[in-house]
Fold this sequence. Notes:
By secondary structure, this protein is α/β, with parallel strands linked by helices. It has a single domain (35-240), classed as 3-Layer(aba) Sandwich (Rossmann fold), CATH 3.40.50. It contains 8 helices and 8 strands; from the N terminus they run αβαβαβαβαβαβαβαβ. Strands 1-4-3-2-5-6-8-7 form an 8-stranded mixed sheet, with helices on both faces. α6 links the parallel β5 (138-144) and β6. The longest helix is centred in the first third of the chain and has 14 residues, at 35-48. It is globular, with a radius of gyration of 17 Å. 37% of the residues are buried. The model is unreliable at 1-21 (pLDDT under 50).
Amino acid sequence: MAEATDRTASPPPSPGAPPHRSIRSYVRREGRITEAQQQALATWSQRFCIGPSAEPFDFNAIFGRDAERYLEVGCGAGEVLIALASEHPENDYLGVEVYRPGLGRLLRGLAERKLKNIRILCGDAPSLIEYQVSDQSLAGVYVFFPDPWPKKRHHKRRLMRPDFVALLRRKLCSHARVFLATDWEDYAQHIVQVMDEDGGFVNLAGRAVYAPRPRWRPLTRYEQRAHARGHRIREILYALA
């Protein structure tokens, strides 16, 4: 996502738009953005990105149809979203992203493939999901390799906290699923603990058991780097009880 001054990638909040949370699960650590990525942001943001508004989004109007909808938090360059949207044109997909280099790559991919069933939400995921996504409107949520914030003093920044899990529970349809993956063991244990303590979800692999890797998820560049470092990937799969 762009900085607040870059209106091509992130329109300024409308009057009455939701405030951002004081503690965010990310900091801006963007690398160099290429000319091609900047061009993609300038050209395709208006087509594929939807910015903050004062009311929940009307996704039927945005997509022009009523369909099952899935949301990925931290979609990066969109490797997962593009694969799923291409394989399942009957579904609609939403991605949340804040980093401009990844967003630029994602927008280029969407334009090249002419995909019509993806939209990108630009901003802080918990705030956008809380205020812009209607309750009981999502068939599934993907959270793959969220920032682990490994230092104990930074754990408060972790995305998968009790308040966020409770928020997801409100936004999911009956029996919807939450797919998660991390290459940090202590974060995986934390996620399982928080999901179990919420009480509104069921671990589909069994209590305190990790799930097999889903065959449909493409091997992203981040996951390849994790394997190269010798990190074990822990898959976590929950369904709304």
